[in-house]
Amino acid sequence: MARTRAAVERTRTLLAEEFGCTAQDIVFASSTGEAVNAVARAISWQQGDEVLTLDDEFPTVSQPWSKLPGVRLVTVPAGPDDDRTSALMRAIGPHTRLVAVSHVSSHTGTAVDLAALGAACTAAGALLLCDGAQAAGVLPVVSAQADFYVATGYKWMLAGFGIAFLIIKAPVRDTLEPTLLGHANISPSRNLAVGTPNLAGIHALGAAAELRRTVGHQAITERATALAARIRDEAQALGFRPVGHPGHVSQIVSLVPLGLPAESWVTRLEGTDVIVAERGGNLRISPHFYTPDSDVDALLLALSHPHA
Fold this sequence. Notes:
Blueprint: H1 2-19, E1 26-29, H2 32-40, E2 50-54, H3 59-62, E3 72-76, H4 84-91, E4 96-102, H5 114-124, E5 127-131, E6 148-152, E7 164-168, H6 170-173, H7 199-215, H8 217-237, E8 241-243, E9 253-256, H9 262-270, E10 277-279, E11 282-285, H10 293-303
Parallel strand pairs: 2-3, 2-4, 4-5, 5-6
Antiparallel strand pairs: 1-7, 6-7, 8-9, 9-11, 10-11
Helix pairs in contact: 1-7, 4-5, 8-10
């Protein structure tokens, strides 16, 4: 058991180094959904409080607040060219208690300016919760720009399903009153974890963090960014229109499909061993640092024949 505890603390330390927090700020969960719901049920809400989010947000970000007594969920559309940051900043009002947002949109690949949004929330006395599922592990993250930063073990983090982690600012943690309770957070504990975590998942999360540190966080970002830029530029030259704000791009490339529906492109590309996804009717392409140039070549070759 001592070895297991040591491995858990090693994972906390590695994540703290990567995300700019302390090991004590990190809580493990089984999924981002569990973590966000734990937050939603630990804040001392007041009648008339509002939670602000975007109208196309991933359900894990938007739905946990929808059934809270006395709390109003306010949704707004993204701005022109998918300017998500400005849309939220403009919509913060006197009753906004919390803003919930994805760091990178799963539909469009647009990244939110967390520094600007976090500052706006702080100025308004509102909390900021950020879902880093589409960013953590590939984009540089300063977790202190949000009051709550949550990330899942799969996708860019390379650790698989069934494990996630939540980073909570210490001053905010001291105000929480958990209502999802278990042996791990008996009152007066402020801990949001309710029981024994997924230890195998934490081991995987730690091994993946070691790998990213070995490869180099900056090198990972630069390689994935370069691949995404190549795909975005060359696909646009082929007639595909990139979706998302041009000033806030990420390592996710989202394209309006050309010639075929997005689902048909997914099937066709899978037949050439190139894996992409359909999101919001668009074609989503997510190269990571390990993606070989030959895969990008195959992707672009297939995209060059939309009617084949």
